[in-house]
Design goal:
Length: 123
């Protein structure tokens, strides 16, 4: 018997629980990972994700519109998304011990918190 996991894409906290990737903080985008564009807003004490214009065409007029965005033109390009086999290779050496008194593991890549059991299923 096999089961399929469906419809978790629109539920970001659930995505974080199932995948083992923390969808909070500086590198919250699981697709962009370490190339996530984010800024800390000091007065509201919140993180703002501002790199959305890099997904537009290179000659799109909003890439050069600095007045309505973060007073910068957008010149970055899209990084190719990381595939599942590369993620498994990154996370293969992770040994996570769950519990309140365990220290944070500094060797984890990016925002990964655990090696999810969903990576072990045969697909």
């Amino acid at each position: 018997m096999r089961a399929a996991l469906l419809w978790t894409i629109n539920d970001f906290p659930c995505y974080a629980n199932l995948s083992g990737y923390s969808t909070k903080g500086k590198f919250a985008c699981p697709t962009c990972q370490e190339s996530t564009c984010s800024e800390w807003l000091h007065f509201s004490r919140k993180r703002c994700y501002i790199g959305h214009r890099r997904f537009l065409d290179h000659n799109h007029p909003e890439r050069k519109d600095s007045r309505y965005f973060n007073s910068c033109e957008e010149h970055e390009t899209i990084q190719p998304p990381i595939n599942g086999s590369k993620i498994v290779d990154m996370l293969r050496s992770i040994n996570v011990k769950f519990g309140k008194k365990t220290p944070a593991n500094p060797n984890l890549p990016s925002n990964w918190k655990k090696f999810s059991i969903f990576f072990k299923f045969p697909y």
